[in-house]
Design brief:
Elements (H helix, E strand, L loop, with lengths): L1 E7 L4 H11 L9 E7 L5 H14 L4 E7 L2 H4 L5 E4 L11 H22 L5 E4 L4 H10 L9 E3 L2 H15 L6 E2 L2 E3 L7 E3 L4 E2 L2 E2 L6 H13 L1 H9 L5 H16 L7 E6 L11 E9 L2 E4 L7 H23 L4
Parallel strand pairs: 1-2, 1-4, 2-3, 4-5, 5-6
Antiparallel strand pairs: 6-12, 7-10, 8-9, 10-11, 12-13, 13-14
Helix pairs in contact: 1-9, 4-5, 5-10, 6-7
Bound molecules: 1,4-dihydronicotinamide adenine dinucleotide.
Catalytic activity: (S)-malate + NAD(+) = oxaloacetate + NADH + H(+)
Family: Belongs to the LDH/MDH superfamily. MDH type 2 family.
Pfam family, one: Ldh_1_C
Length: 325
């Protein structure tokens, strides 16, 4: 069987890191065949041809084919995974509202295209920013796709928090379980270690509240900016890796006793208004995610979540005012 996977913005920095790993089996595994459906703007089709040439030259045994398109309805035809990475970056003088407008229109059109032509089992992952609200817009324009099949990426934030906590306590990343990111993929995101375990021990027994407030939360939330400052370009390989982790976990599930973080359509859990696309701790079994129920949340984390949710509500108002919802 061949599974079709769409990548938008495939000639961009994240797309370039993503396509080769998926082609080599990182998403579906070494025994599955993948057909890549790469979408770009007409102006980037030349660069995309180059990506396709390199994919061919890798001679991956897991790659059944590569299709290039500058039309979403062509690229998304029959796809089981839609990795929506391509987005308009914030340019000089652009306000956040301008960014929401430019990207809202892109994700409106891509949502409608997915609604029209994607496979029945399609899973949609939005990486392009502002990811949560782009996913909200796409979902609105794809009414027949189940809400449970639409998500935005906070796995990079999750992975960053796992790595930071592991380094702090001198453990391996594989020893860290039950990390949580709440809210928006933005500077207001809420990394939360209250329920995390390191080697089976509760993280709050290993790190103090000051380290969480003064180091973990700001470092994870500002990591994207720190990488731009250091590299002169935004995180690409790590964002691609997290996009694969997210989509792979969605198919293959979370490990027993662990969970992951995904931005999904809220059912009202934890006081997040129904319908907002917000990050939650989720378990995944048989391809279906479920928000981890009943976690105790202290006042400090509650206030951070409320601030991030207020930002998501504001973004929703802005795209609504633009006629995108
Ligand atoms: P990039 O600018 O290198 O590549 C974006 C590509 O998307 C370009 O090749 C562009 O031609 C294409 N594109 C733009 N509009 C398109 C459309 N309507 N259809 C198809 N392709 C389109 O940017 P990069 O570094 O690859 O980042 C992509 C997005 O991912 C950005 O929005 C960035 O902010 C976001 N990002 C998200 C992260 C997350 O954790 N959720 C982490 C890092 C980046």
């Amino acid at each position: 069987m061949v599974t079709s996977v769409a990548i938008t913005g495939a000639a961009g920095a994240i797309g370039y890191a993503l396509a080769f790993r998926i082609a080599s089996g990182a998403l579906l595994g070494p025994d599955e065949q993948v057909r890549l459906r790469l979408l770009e703007l007409p102006s980037a089709m030349g660069a995309l041809e180059g990506v396709a040439m390199e994919l061919e030259d890798c001679a991956f045994g897991t790659l059944a084919g590569v299709d290039l398109a500058d039309d979403a309805r062509v690229a998304f035809d029959g796809v089981s995974h839609a990795l929506l990475v391509g987005a308009r970056p914030r340019g000089p003088g652009m306000e956040r509202g301008d960014l929401l407008a430019a990207n809202g229109a892109i994700f409106r059109d891509q949502g409608a295209a997915l609604e029209a032509v994607a496979a029945d089992d399609v899973r949609i992952t939005v990486t392009g920013n502002p990811a949560n609200t782009n996913a909200l817009v796409a979902a609105h324009h794809a009414p027949s796709i189940p809400r449970s099949r639409i998500s935005a990426l906070t796995r990079l934030d999750h992975n960053r928090a796992v790595a930071r906590l592991a380094a702090k306590v001198g453990a391996g990343v594989a020893d860290v379980r039950r990390m949580t990111i709440w809210g928006n993929h933005s500077a207001t995101q809420v990394p939360d270690v209250a329920h995390a375990l390191v080697g089976g021990r509760p993280a709050p027994d290993l790190v103090d509240a000051a380290w969480i407030a003064d180091d973990l939360v700001p470092t994870v939330a500002q990591r994207g900016a720190a990488i731009i400052a250091a590299r002169g370009a935004s995180s690409a390989a790590s964002a691609a890796s997290a996009t694969i982790d997210h989509a792979r976990t969605w198919v293959h599930g979370t490990a027993e006793g662990d969970w992951t973080s995904m931005a999904v359509v809220s059912d009202g859990s934890y006081g997040v208004p129904e319908g907002l696309v917000s990050s939650f701790p989720v378990t995944v079994v048989d391809g279906e995610w479920r928000i981890v129920p009943g976690l105790a949340i202290d006042d400090v984390v509650r206030a951070r979540i409320d601030a991030s949710i207020a930002e998501l509500v504001d973004e929703r108002e802005q795209v609504r005012a633009l006629g995108l919802l």
